[in-house]
Amino acid sequence: MSSVNDWAGPNPVKDNRSGLIGKGVDRYEGPLKVTGTAPYAYEVQPPSPPAYGVMVGATVATGRITGVDIAEAEAAPGVLLVWTHRNVPAQPAKGTRKHPRSTAGSKPALESDRVAYFGQPVALVVADTLENATAAARLVRLTYDAASPDVDFAARKAGAGQPPGEEDVEIGNFGEGFAASAVQLDETWTTPIQNHCQMEPCASLAWWEGDRCIAHTSIQMVKPAQHGLAETLGIDRDDVRLMTRYIGGGFGGKGQTYDDLTLAALAARALGRPVKVAFTRQQMMHGTIHRPATVQRVRLGADRDGRLNAFSLMTWTHCHRDGAFTEHASNFARTLYAAPNRLTGHRLVKLDLPGAGPMRAPGEASGTLSLECAMDELAERLGLDPVELRIRNEPPVDPENGRPFSQRQLVRCLKEGAQLFGWDRRLPTPGQVRDGRWLVGYGMAAAIRGNFLLPAKCSFSVDDDGVITVRQGMTDIGTGTYTVLAQIAAETLGVPLGQVRVEIGDSELPPAPGSGGQFGAATAGSAALMAGMNLRKAIAELATGDAESPLHGGDPAKIVFQDGVVGIENRSETLAGLIRRAAPGGLTVEGEIRPASDMREWSQQTYGAHFCEVGVDPVTGEVRVRRMLGVFAAGRIINAKTARSQLTGGMIWGAASALTEGNPVDPRYGSLLGQDLAQYLVPVQADIGEVEAIMLDEVDDKANPMGIKGVGELGNSGSGAAVANAIYNACGVRVREYPITPDKLLAGLIARGL
Ligand code: MOS
Fold first, then answer.
1. Distance 224 CA to ligand 1 centre (A)
2. Which of 223, 235, 385, 426 could form a disulfide with 442 if both were Cys (CB 3.0 to 4.6 A apart)?
3. Residue 254 CB–ligand 1 contact under 6 Å
4. Is the CB of 228 under 6 A from ligand 1?
5. Is 710 in the pocket of ligand 1 (CB under 6 A)?
């Protein structure tokens, strides 16, 4: 076992002899994905022909199922079973943990007549083909005793309470500080419900081998899925093998399992054959979680030089009636800028909507949409450049808790970004620049997102051919996990990339926390480095202790691994030759990482600065994102290509949050209006012009043995605000209700006489 602060000795990731670390290496699984041969959960070949399950969603948001008629569905062609709450197999009550160390409790499906949200799966039809199951699902007739859903966030906001276990954080005296400030800003922003819209909807395939359930599903975290399924099935955790080899996007929406997994496993057991169950694109909108809407009030008080004296971000948000998830949109604000008087907190309303949950950069993605626009507005009131305003409020230590920053290069990001973008060409007065019919403007915003390290294990094997196999119960949700693990292995053992195999996404493998909170690469990679170092040690001891090795008698600490050869000074042999002779069949060792006990003595974040150029058509209110530039400081970068993809993907999400994304609630049904990708608008290629992400050289020695941090969410923090600020600079219209759609902009444009 190793943790950050007991790490000593050679560090191949830092030495980077082969130059593989930081290189833009192609994706390990890229050829499989681009040829359509990477088996996603629904496409895995089961041992015998599968049956197909289709779920039926509730058409009311709250109430009880009073009538069930499944006769016609049962009689339909190819139908093998039809389940509702009346005949589904018994499952332990929700949240049951028979095993005390289970990382998730039971998640029963169809378990009662109670309907708790629109679209809740209330019936399952399994048939011999997907088409037969889909057709029969339409013949399931349910009647409801439905109450009128309480979904009006705006009306309930006034009565919202603090989230469970949470207090507001006040430092100094905000009220007095604000009142005494020479320049004040007090504005409110709103953000809508957002859906994750992963390319691959949630899907599962399960079969049984005797008493053992084998399940493939699309999930970000392996262990909680395995444990939760075992608890739901009422079986031992070792009797569930859960795999998630390829995942078509997660974004937080696959941090938990849904009824597809439970129902596939139950139906496979009942039918004695493999069963596949998937959400349709339409079912994803209600049947899985979403990012909740927010109302955010920002109050900033500054002196005439732009130094913040009082600073507040208060967030109202909502969650499901039975839930407590909170969109922590105010949290990041506690660390971003200095101010002696500070107030931040959250208010939560429970509504009859589907479950709210985390979505890429939970908190920051929503919160920067208000605060980073408020800073822009304050800069204008002060007559200051918005970059300069941020630099003037740069805190020397974490302003909330006084902890030193492990690394903080926000100012460098701001300055380098401004220079690369050509920020000095920006005219501070809005509406001054035209390009044909377009009004053109520049905007910027800061980016921040936390950095985390969690406990993880990993194993490394070397075989008779000198091939290194990395095994870890980690996931790759499209982020590049396979690839960065391969790079770390190749660098650590001195073998070419083509001589590394990576096996992840399986509950049988050494446990890792999975993908979320942008902790994946740091956590999984650190455990891999530890495993690699342990394998180096084992190989060094093997070689120096083997009378037949040219390395015999050498100092194991002096061993060098390079190009598939192990050597000490001028003596060497191939890794494959050594293993074949001295350890036939190969060697396997484990490694482990744990956060150091003093890790929280530092304030650890990743930072960035976004710059954006937009065009606004004053006649139609159409906005075109012409240029986006992000400059980021996120520790050492392992793979320039996959990291860049993560960052630009996040930046585009920001543009989407500013301009198109959002799902309005239909108060009559407690449903979301956007039910597919024709109605819920995610950006396509034509919506986004030039996008560039620059990564500064940085090594954060406090973060983990590799000095790396995360980039999966950072790009999505602040990028929407940069777009909104650019719109204002282009045309002088501030829209504080996201998304900034043409109808809202037009109202402002007309009012300005443009
Ligand atoms: Mo992420 S939204 O923390 O999976």
1. 14
2. 426
3. no
4. no
5. no
Q: What top-level class would CATH report for the domain 12-38+454-594?
A: alpha beta
Mean pLDDT of the 83-88 span: 98
Backbone angles phi, psi at 42, to 5 degrees: -75, -15
Distance (Å, whole) CA 270 – CA 25: 46
Per-position b or e across 167-176, b if 16+ CB within 10 A of its CB: eeeebeebee
DSSP result, 267-281: HHHHHTS-EEEE--H
The predicted structure's pLDDT at residue 2: 46
Active-site residue identified among 231, 364, 377, 713: 713
Greatest distance between any 2 Cα atoms in the chain: 89
How many helices, marked H, and strands, marked E, lie in the chain? Answer: 19, 30
Distance (angstroms) between ligand 1 centre and the Cα of 515 equals 7
Phi, psi of 44, rounded to the nearest 5 degrees: -65, 140
Q: Which atom belonging to ligand 1 lies closest to the Cα atom of 361?
A: 2
d(CA 72, CA 561) in angstroms, rounded, equals 68
pLDDT per residue as tens digits for the range 368-396:
999 999 999 999 999 999 999 999 999 99
d(CA 410, ligand 1 centre) in Å: 23
pLDDT digits (tens, 9 = 90+) for 308-363: 999 999 999 999 999 999 999 999 999 999 999 999 999 999 999 999 999 999 99
Rg (CA), the chain: 27
Question: With a 6 A CB cut-off, is 224 part of the ligand 1 pocket?
Answer: no
- For the 375-452+600-751 domain, the top CATH level (class) is alpha beta
Q: Is 290 in the pocket of ligand 1 (CB under 6 A)?
A: no
Residue 495's nearest CA partner among 526, 461, 471 is: 461
Q: In a 10 Å sphere around its CB, with 0-12 CB exposed, 13-18 middle and 19+ buried, how is residue 47 labelled? A: exposed
Residue nearest to atom 3 of ligand 1 (CA): 517
What is the domain partition of the chain in residue ranges? 12-38+454-594, 375-452+600-751
- Is 713 an annotated catalytic residue? yes
Structure tokens at 124: 């399952």
Residue 319 three-state SS? strand
Domain 12-38+454-594 and domain 375-452+600-751, same fold? Reply is yes
pLDDT at 452: 92
Give 589-628 pLDDT, tens digit per residue: 999 999 887 778 999 999 999 999 999 999 999 999 999 9
Give me the phi and psi of 34, to 5 degrees please: -75, -15
- Give the rounded percent of residues in the chain with a pLDDT score beyond 70: 99
Local confidence band at 5 (pLDDT 50, 70, 90 cut-offs) = very low
| β-pairing verdict for 456-462 and 183-191 | unpaired
Q: Band of the pLDDT at 1, cuts 50, 70, 90?
A: very low
Tell whether ligand 1 has an atom less than 6 A from the beta carbon of residue 630.
no
Give the closest residue to 656 by CA, choosing from 712, 596, 705, 723. Answer: 723
Q: Is residue 92 predicted with pLDDT exceeding 90?
A: yes
pLDDT per position as a tens digit, 244-303: 999 999 999 999 999 999 999 999 999 999 999 999 999 999 999 999 999 999 999 999
